[in-house]
Amino acid sequence: MAKKYYVVWAGRETGIFTSWDVTKRSVDKFPQAKYKSFATEAEAKAAFAKSPHSSIGRAAAKPAAKPSASESLKNNASGSIKTISDNESVISRYDVVIYTDGGCEPNPGKAGSGIAVYHQGQLAELWFGLFNPNGTNNTAELNALYQALLMAKNAIENSQTVCVMSDSQYSINCISEWAYGWKSKGWTRKGGEIANLDIIKQAHELYETLKDKLCIKHVAAHIGIEGNELADRMSIHAVDQTHKSFSQFQPPLDISKILALRTG
């Protein structure tokens, strides 16, 4: 029997599924549920990026051309990713897209970081860890962003185009904007001590070496963007497992099961 891909635009859980049982649980008796099956993953992804009305019965659009290194700089921080369609546009343009997230319960409290890595538009790796029993959400977000930059460096050195997606505008601003002013004043600021200074220095120094070839964008949290949702689950998984190192989540990468994990 040929494998099918089920797109759920409106249901208890939205996304692309390969199991009818999972899909049925999401849409059965859900008011005004919207879903449809597709023969290929590419068709399903193209459909999910659009509205149900515009997607049904239409062919998948061709992916946008991959940007050059110089184009990556032009795209750097050029607005937030606020819709699933915006996200699909980015993920189709870069060889590697890295989503980052940090979680803390309560804040301050037990903190952890998570990452989801996509290669050529496909989920390739999940990472979790850096548990801190006395952390903060901002520190967890910065830790995740720094780990993403380390991964981006490796990808760039292998001639791949990279976009890092963080749902923490604070973290992005710290390393790509505010750090320049703080550094010019000897890493001080008028308002007092700079929180999370050690990790900000490390991340900013690495960002400086990559920024001409790196796209880094803010992505809206918890709006159904798969990569962001998976990174969120990994950050809370780190908290639940009290996992102090930063480790790769071992396959199989069953997206539906992972999304069913506790959210932050």
Automatic annotation (TrEMBL):
One Pfam family linked to the record: RNase_H
Names of the cofactor(s): Mg(2+)
Stretches with biased composition (Low complexity): 59-70
EC number, as in UniProt: 3.1.26.4
InterPro entries xref list: Ribosomal_bL9/RNase_H1_N, RNase_H, RNase_H1_euk, RNase_H1_N, RNase_H1_N_sf, RNaseH-like_sf, RNaseH_domain, RNaseH_sf
RNase H type-1 domain: residues covered: 92-240
Keywords attached to this entry: Endonuclease, Hydrolase, Magnesium, Metal-binding, Nuclease
Highest taxon listed in the record's lineage: Bacteria
Catalytic activity: Endonucleolytic cleavage to 5'-phosphomonoester
UniProt region (Disordered), positions on chain: 59-78
Family: Belongs to the RNase H family.
Record-given protein name: ribonuclease H
